[in-house]
Amino acid sequence: MERYLGIIKLFNIVAAVVIVLGVVALVWLMVERGRGDRAAVDSGSIVLPTGFRVIEMSATSDFVFLLLGDDDDALLLLRLDPRDPASSASFVVETARP
Fold first, then answer.
1. Is 68 helix (H, G, I), strand (E, B) or coil?
2. How many CA atoms lie within 13 A of 98 on its CB side?
3. Where are the domains of the chain?
């Protein structure tokens, strides 16, 4: 019986070490991912199409999205890439009209 208790104690110690090492590895990965190698954008400007104004703005880790609107209820969605302005795109948003 004491032999089995020794095996259980050894298993618990090994399991605790694995858990501690796993937590350390996860924290290290989160810190490394948080640092990232993305270059920060210092400043910039966006020229909006004539007559349009920003209605909403949203951002992801890679893009900035601007929803633009004008007085005629036309909508335009801009996808901006701060790291590569040449890859920015715009999309006309069509809405159902009664």
1. strand
2. 0
3. 1-37, 53-93
